[in-house]
Amino acid sequence: MTCQARSSYITSEILWGYRFTPVLTLEDGFYEVDYNSFHETYETNTPVYSAKELAEMASRAELPLTWSVSSKLDQHAELETEEEEKNQEEQNERNGDVANLENE
């Protein structure tokens, strides 16, 4: 059977960060619909801003819209490498000072 439905919502009816409670269960090989919880919702972990708002903020700040875990790990590794090089240079300077003292 062909069925069509059309809906419109007002602002107060839209819940950001919520999902509908599942109403279908499988009982003895048959699906059962629980109409008592048909309109129930539950809160989910959702970003505070919509994708559109995030894109607008990113364009205003001229920041990349997306990042990956691997890119963040690469940045972290680069910082660690720079710190290690700086520490090595400081160690070499101290070693050089000790060597100069021994030569005097």
Please tell me about this protein's structure.
The chain has 104 residues and is α+β, with helices and mostly antiparallel strands. The model has no long low-confidence stretch (mean pLDDT 78). The protein starts with 17 loop residues before the first strand and ends with a helix. The longest helix is centred in the last third of the chain and has 35 residues. The strands form two sheets. A two-stranded antiparallel ribbon has the order 1-4. Strands 2-3 form a two-stranded antiparallel ribbon. Helix content is 44%, strand content 13%. It is built from two helices and four strands, in the order E-E-E-E-H-H. The protein has a domain of 52 residues. GO terms for molecular function: G-protein activated inward rectifier potassium channel activity.
Brief summary of the model shown:
It catalyses: K(+)(in) = K(+)(out). InterPro entries: Ig_E-set (IPR014756), IRK_C (IPR041647), K_chnl_inward-rec_Kir (IPR016449), K_chnl_inward-rec_Kir3.2 (IPR003275), K_chnl_inward-rec_Kir_cyto (IPR013518). It contains two helices and four strands.
Task: Show the helix and strand layout.
Layout: E1 18-20, E2 24-27, E3 30-33, E4 41-43, H1 51-61, H2 69-103
Antiparallel strand pairs: 1-4, 2-3
List keywords for this structure.
Ig_E-set; 4 strands; alpha+beta; elongated; two-stranded antiparallel ribbon; phosphoprotein
Q: How many runs of DSSP E, i.e. beta strands?
A: 4
- Approximately how much beta-strand content do the residues carry? 5-15%
Residue ranges: pLDDT <50 for 5 or more in a row? none
Classify the helix fraction into a percent range: 40-55%
Largest sheet: 2 strands, antiparallel
